[in-house]
Amino acid sequence: MAIIPTDLLDRIRALERQVRELMFSANATPALNSIADGEVVIGEHGRLRVRTAGDQDLLYLGRVAPDRDEETSQQGLVVRRDDGSLALTVWTGAPDPQAVQPVRILDRRGNVVLADDTVRGGLARPYLPFALPAPVDPARWESTGATAWTTLRRGPGLVQHPRLHCEIAVAGAPGEVRLLVDGVQLGPVGGPGAGLVLTERVGVEYGATVTFEIQARVTTAGTTIRCYPLTLYGLES
């Protein structure tokens, strides 16, 4: 029988011990499901994708479809409810190199209930009504016989949209009705019958407080024109 050197047996035993230690260490390593410090980086064209127990997409973070062009991917955020309906998006369905991604919150039917304006900034939806201007002289109640512009209603408003939509009903003798924003006429004038309907850019910064005025005048002395504001609210670009 061959004689095995003692030092070789010792080396084999040492190797066996090291293998057992490595196996124990591997089995004892906790699952990598938490990060106590540091960060997770998803670069290039990668994305984080979360799916429901029913194998439905719940969240995309990173690359989203469609791409901006053949060489540039679109990076964004898409969150769905567990029934598959969109809930929150930072994404555009028709991107190009200049396209701005709107931030949108949607209801279960797909209606956009909250969105920012991608052209001028500020709020796009919902459409928030402005408080209607109040009569300056209650005794006249939205009527005047003056041939010069006369303010019938005045009131403050907080601008949250780039554009303003206004409708004013007008009746009585021939004349004109107009809307002023901080003393400057906005859009065209209106008259009896068709009234005044306008949708115009306000031209002030988001969040600015302005004064709305409704003015009227007749074209023939001794007659009376009457007006009543129907709606006043902001719109997206």
Automatic annotation (TrEMBL):
Organism domain of life: Bacteria
Name assigned to this protein: Uncharacterized protein
Natural source organism: Streptomyces rhizosphaericola
